């Protein structure tokens, strides 16, 4: 097992003993010449923020808890979970790990004819896109293959297949994708529409940067009346979308999820081959692990790049794939997350935490602010480069305006669900490094939302803005503490 973190007994024990005693907030001490911004109670009151908040700020060098509230209470971290997933994958797989997508031939090639099967084998790559697949299709002609006599097989068994991350989500949202060992375009297809007279011209394709092959196993029809903007059903291997006419406007486009990602990828490869003059039979799922000689292998970017992208763009598919690859678990996402939980307890000293997935989309995950801040402190001590993988956050004053003094640098992971807002990571101010966690949630408002039908409930956007103001207000305050 590859490890990127050099865990020393001295660091682990010293930090553990210092941080373990830091469960109550000391009286804040100001930096010379500073005026302490409002405390959290005043901030919450001024923001009219409903629900409950918990936070913790820890001086990484000394282990001192600068300030905390509800520090040991379990909160929903949302996508802040991805910070733990990132460390888990890097520690287990290694920063230089690369996913492989392989094209194999099981047979001989004579006069341009492959007398046998062609197999597309997935390695779980969450970043595989249409242009990558087009490169593999090009390798058919590069290897002298213009026809095959056998089957076109696909193998997505490197990872287990899941239809979604969380069941109770609207059918059309791309952030709740299916998962498989053979993924493409974050397991989404592109729906584009343009009004032409009284009707619409529509297109469903596997949109790439340079090529847009059509999707042949998904259809979309426009409905004059239906309860939801989008509805979805399956008939065998065919995916059927319906969209409400009144929601379309003049023209536009958006990504829609596919629930059969391995078949979708194989179908797109078949279309790409056809565009190069090679007719392949309809794709068939391989019944056993793929064999045969390798025609070509596509290697993903190194894991460190994928992790950085996941943390900055909060891609749920990447998080779940990385977690599944690291755990080796095939039963369920929650079982895989449980293995990450055990790892985090051992490697990060993470307590008061229960993970249900690797992306944070589940609202059943719980973690306490103090525990998360401690974990970030330990990660920074053992792997200082981790901070460079996190997204830079602009420092703001407690009133929401940009902090033009440039006193603080923030690198953190954000997290958002309906009426849940989270932020966790690091702040550096005048040489002091702080590990922090800020969690806000309103379960009362969240309980009133039908999450399977409504991804933008009334009041959620305004509530989230107020919660983010609290994040910035606390960080602004901590940057001015001695």
Can you describe this structure?
The structure is a single chain. The protein has eleven helices and 20 strands. It is α+β, with helices and mostly antiparallel strands. The protein has two domains: 239 residues, DD-peptidase/beta-lactamase superfamily (Beta-lactamase), CATH 3.40.710.10; 202 residues, 3-Layer(bba) Sandwich (D-tyrosyl-trna(Tyr) Deacylase, Chain: A). Helix 7 crosses helix 8.
**CATH C-level of the largest domain:** Alpha Beta
| Total strand segments | 20
Domains counted in the coordinates: how many? 2
The DSSP helix count reads: 11
Computed CA radius of gyration, to the nearest angstrom: 25 Å
Biggest sheet character: 6 strands, antiparallel
Set down the secondary structure blueprint.
Layout: H1 9-20, H2 40-47, E1 52-59, E2 65-69, H3 81-93, E3 100-110, E4 113-121, H4 130-142, E5 147-148, E6 152-155, E7 188-196, E8 199-205, E9 218-223, E10 230-235, E11 238-244, E12 251-257, H5 261-275, E13 284-285, E14 293-299, H6 303-313, H7 316-327, H8 333-348, E15 353-354, E16 366-367, H9 369-382, E17 391-393, E18 408-417, E19 420-429, E20 432-441, H10 443-447, H11 460-478
Parallel strand pairs: 4-5, 4-6, 6-13, 9-11
Antiparallel strand pairs: 1-2, 1-20, 3-4, 3-14, 7-8, 7-12, 10-11, 15-16, 17-18, 18-19, 19-20
Helix pairs in contact: 1-9, 2-11, 3-6, 3-7, 4-5, 7-8
């Amino acid at each position: 097992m590859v490890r990127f973190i050099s865990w020393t007994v001295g660091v682990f024990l010293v930090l553990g003993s210092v941080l373990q005693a830091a469960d109550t907030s000391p009286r804040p001490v100001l930096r010379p010449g500073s005026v302490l911004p409002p405390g959290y109670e005043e901030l919450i009151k001024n923001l009219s923020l409903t629900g409950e908040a918990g936070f913790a700020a820890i001086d990484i060098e000394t282990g001192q808890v600068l300030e905390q509230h509800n520090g040991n209470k379990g909160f929903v971290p949302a996508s802040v979970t991805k910070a733990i997933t990132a460390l888990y994958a890097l520690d287990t797989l290694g920063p230089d790990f690369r996913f492989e997508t392989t094209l194999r031939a099981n047979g001989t090639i004579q006069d341009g004819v492959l007398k046998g099967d062609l197999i597309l084998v997935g390695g779980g790559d969450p970043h595989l896109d249409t242009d990558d697949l087009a490169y593999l299709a090009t390798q058919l002609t590069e290897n002298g293959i213009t026809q095959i006599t056998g089957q076109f097989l696909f193998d997505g068994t490197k990872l287990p297949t899941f239809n979604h991350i969380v069941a109770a989500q609207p059918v059309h949202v791309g952030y709740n994708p299916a998962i498989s060992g053979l993924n493409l375009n974050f397991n989404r297809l592109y729906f584009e529409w343009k009004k032409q007279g009284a009707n619409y011209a529509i297109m469903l394709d596997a949109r790439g940067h340079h090529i847009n092959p059509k999707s042949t196993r998904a259809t979309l029809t426009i409905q004059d009346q239906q309860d939801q903007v989008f509805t979805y059903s399956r008939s065998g291997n065919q995916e059927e979308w319906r969209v409400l006419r009144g929601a379309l406007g003049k023209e536009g486009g958006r990504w829609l999820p596919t629930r059969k990602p391995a078949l979708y990828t194989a179908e797109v490869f078949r279309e790409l081959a056809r565009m190069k003059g090679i007719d392949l039979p309809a794709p068939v799922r391989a019944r056993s692990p793929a064999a045969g000689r390798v025609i070509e292998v596509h290697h993903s970017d190194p894991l460190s790049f994928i992790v950085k992208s996941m943390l900055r763009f909060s891609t749920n598919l990447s998080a779940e794939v990385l977690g599944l690859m690291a755990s080796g678990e095939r039963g369920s996402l929650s079982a895989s997350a449980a293995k990450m939980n055990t790892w985090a307890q051992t490697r990060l000293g993470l307590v008061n935490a229960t993970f249900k997935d690797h992306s944070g989309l589940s609202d059943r995950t719980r973690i306490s602010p103090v525990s998360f801040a401690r974990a970030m402190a330990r990660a920074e001590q053992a792997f200082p480069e981790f901070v460079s993988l996190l997204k830079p956050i602009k420092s703001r004053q407690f009133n929401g305006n940009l902090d033009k003094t440039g006193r603080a640098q923030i690198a953190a992971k954000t997290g958002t669900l309906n009426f849940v807002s989270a932020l966790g990571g690091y702040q550096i101010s005048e040489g002091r490094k702080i590990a922090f966690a800020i969690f806000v949630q309103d379960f009362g408002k969240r309980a009133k939302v039908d999450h399977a039908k409504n991804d933008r409930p009334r009041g959620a956007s305004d509530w989230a803005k107020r919660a983010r103001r609290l994040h910035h207000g606390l960080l602004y305050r901590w940057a001015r503490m001695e």
